[in-house]
Amino acid sequence: MFYDLHMHSCLSPCAEDEMTPNNIVNMASIIGLDLIAVTDHNSTKQLPAIDKVAKQVGMKLLYGVEIETNEEVHVLGLFNTLEKSQKFQEWIDFYMPEVELDEDFFGHQWIMNEKDEIIAHERRLLLVSLYATLEQTVDAIHKYGGRAILAHVLDRANSVTNQLGFIPMDLPYDGLEVKSEEQRLRVIESNPWITEDSTNWFIDSDAHRLVEMSEADHYLRDSVYQKLWGEDL
Amino acid sequence: MTIAELIEKTNWKLDTPELDTSMEIEGAYCGDLLSWVMGKGQPGQAWITVQVHSNVIAVALLRDFACIIVAENANVTPEFINKFIEEEMILIESGLPEYETAKTLASLGI
Questions:
Q1: Interface of B with A (CB under 8 A)
Q2: Closest Cα in chain A to B75
Q3: How far apart are CA A86 and CA A47, in angstroms?
Q4: CATH superfamily of the domain spanning B3-107
Q5: Which among A54, A127, A146, A231 has most CB atoms closer than 10 A?
Q6: pTM of the predicted model, to two decimals?
Q7: Tens-place pLDDT, residues B28-60
């Protein structure tokens, strides 16, 4: 399956308004992707609409979120049902600091329906770090039946290597996300306890605009999908 | 100044009293992004941070710091302290913001 498991909808303040449920899913379909995940910052509230559109279009979906831990590390939580992702929202709400959104500064946080109509504005700023450590976050994603992928691990902002120096040896993550094949080799070189086969690797776009979504270049083997999402933990 | 003298003068909380505190402190480094600290910290320095992830200990050993000073009452857990004791790295809590902690060190001639 050609995939892109990291992108933001118009619920994320930093994403463009064009990142509506229909635009995202249809663009993924045009590009030739088989599997996508929409992963807004600290929120799963766009996923009901994404789910409806994906079912209409016939796009395979994982139900995602990009959590920011209290170390300011970004972690993707990817669930295989909408219900699990919506249940996980309760965990997010518990650990989320209440900061009011300043729309002029940060942008909109729109929640849409399957017709791309705005049905709610998220008033709490989503670009915050939760009161949960990286370890607590990975543990919680597992408890709610999801898989934890450390996001863009070599980025110069909000990556595990920038915030924490290197990838913790005993952290039970399910995969590492990089931006390119070259980055994957660098991760292996600089974290000698990680090998090509010791984890699952993902190359995603982290798209905030439609044009940034991945081309159908990155292939996920069915066996890996089955191992990670075929059954509950 | 040695770590023992620093504790005596500041009354800061020493979380690892079982470890030897006779080591000299050779300056200080302030930082919470561990990638930066790994690249810039120097041996013998006291490292001031609010970061309390367990990777802190590995970075402290790698840079051969004299001690870690956790500022702002960041959440230091018993497991975190135990790792310091295991690795024989001294852990201190100043209870002050990072800037105030650094100013105190400077006023003591570090």
A1: 33-35, 37-38, 51, 53-55, 58-59
A2: A133
A3: 8
A4: HprK N-terminal domain-like (3.40.1390.20)
A5: A146
A6: 0.93
A7: 999 999 999 999 999 999 999 999 999 999 999
